Amino acid sequence: MVLEFPRHVSADEVESTLFNVEPESVQRLMRVILRNSTFIRWNLVHTGKKFGALSKDFDATSVGMKRLFEVFDGSVVLEETVNKVIWERMDVEHAVEVLRGIKEGNIRVVKQGFSPFSTIGYEVSRGLAVPQRADSVILEMLEKRLEEQRVFLLCLNCFHSWKTTVKRAGARPRCGRCGALRVAVVREEDVKVVRKKSLTDDEKRVVKRLGTSASLVLSYGRFALLALVARGVGPSTAARILRRYRFHELVSSEENRKRFLRDIWKAELHYAETRGFWDKN
Length: 281
What we know:
Layout: H1 11-20, H2 26-34, H3 41-50, H4 65-72, H5 76-89, H6 92-103, H7 116-125, H8 131-147, E1 150-155, E2 161-165, H9 166-169, E3 183-185, H10 191-195, H11 201-220, H12 222-228, H13 235-242, H14 247-252, H15 254-279
Antiparallel strand pairs: 1-2, 1-3
Helix pairs in contact: 3-5, 7-8, 8-15, 11-12, 11-13, 12-13, 13-15
């Protein structure tokens, strides 16, 4: 996360703010800030259309933000918009916990320079980074994050389950009890489903998903785990990514591994962009 200000602000000033903001005032501060922020422009227009205060074909770019806020100042439309943005986009509860932790000394504030990855992110956002260098660093950090991800694995042969990380699972994950390679990435609540004899339609879909997951792990080993633990990437999306490659191609070719990681990265970005849609459906 990068904070940008209209004037020069020192690290000491930022630190002072973190220590001086009262945790209990975060909700109120967010409401005041959002009521005067362009951040809620599109939400305000959407809510205005929903309430019938704006026509369906209203063009948000045809009116300045100042005028738009003047029109809805003190109205239920603005109040509803602020409530919606806080509910959907702001993690007030954890922000309060962090600020309280800082004030109580349980969370340390450390002033330091950019890490190599942060520098690349900043350069990319400013169009300053060499594309190849940025791409290489991003893919390296992505792989490291995925390898350190904790996974819950289930053997579909003997139903033994265990927790590990992608890195510790090995190139060809196998059951530690029976030695089978048909291992699925699961959620803990899914384990009891595979043991049932009579399944609901939803439970049948869970079993089908686990079967797909296990087939991917059987065919692609560690690479299947890397795809399956990515954000917003389930068995179906992982299968679409993996079918573009053969296991031996990923093992033997660094270029193919980079392409594979780039495909995962794109899938994560797509999920981040469409997350609001999926959360509502």
